[in-house]
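During the no-cost extension, the postdoctoral fellow (Dr. R.K.) reprocessed legacy sequence entries with the updated structure-token encoder. One reprocessed record is reproduced below for audit purposes.
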Amino acid sequence: MSALLSFEGVNKTFGATKALTGVTANITGRSVGLVGPNGAGKTTLMKICLGLLVPDSGHVSVLGERVTGGGHLARLGFAAEGTGHLPDLTGLECVAYAAELCGFRRRAALLRAHEMLDLVGLDEARYRAAENYSTGMLQRAKVAMALAHGPELLLLDEPTSGLDPESRADFLDLLQHLAHGEGPSIVLSTHILHDVERACDSCIILQDGEVRYAGHLSEMGVRDHQRYTLRPLGDPRSLANALGQFAETVQVNTPEGTVSVHLKPTSSVDSIWVAAAEAGVEIVGLEPARSSFEDAFMASLGERNEH
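Re-encoded structure tokens follow.
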């Protein structure tokens, strides 16, 4: 299986500013988050994927095809940051125009526009002027325009910026539907960690133009060696009481019958077995807690900064 995105030593500078430094990564999956603080190099990397910028050195492949002269562009759809729209056109006309630019004849373009507006949930607003759309509706219209020619990969630059919580949730639902249905794969460039956690299965984390992490989200969880979930064979409350001397916090989880423990900095995992012996309880399951995506993200930045 070829990588969705592949970067080999990609460097890009603008004057004295290093936008990307030795970016190397291979990413698979159906939905990829391109995430990092503002100014991390996300938009620069996305534009290189699109062939809109040429790296100073290094190579980029998208969908297994080397990005060189722009021949790969027919396989890509792109929605830029912001809520831009074509003035004096309805949503239907905007999407049909995008399809015509990609080679569709007028009738076929209109049919395709109807189909795409149905897909993104703008079926009832197709004849309204796009300039009267809400921010969330404009974002959906941009996705419909980017999908007009049937791309294999959809690249989105900060698509949820400016959306209210309900509109953001609806938009992320749409991305999940596309990526895990019959739609294209997705690259979502954003600085909003929740959006990546909600809609993506892989991610590339950038900071100061360098890769901090590249891979599946499921492999990114940071194990916290002071936090555990225990499954006792016996009364969980007895175990929780015995753990009190070794722990910052202890919680019995009902009805699961498990115990969550946050050990003191001076305690080790051996303390759990000591407490179990004191309580006369056998432990049949012990699992280190995994951090949230936000914790893992911050850890990936912090680990590199320590070196």
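The chain has a mean pLDDT of 89. The two ends are 34 Å apart (CA to CA). The remaining legacy entries will be reprocessed before the final report is submitted.
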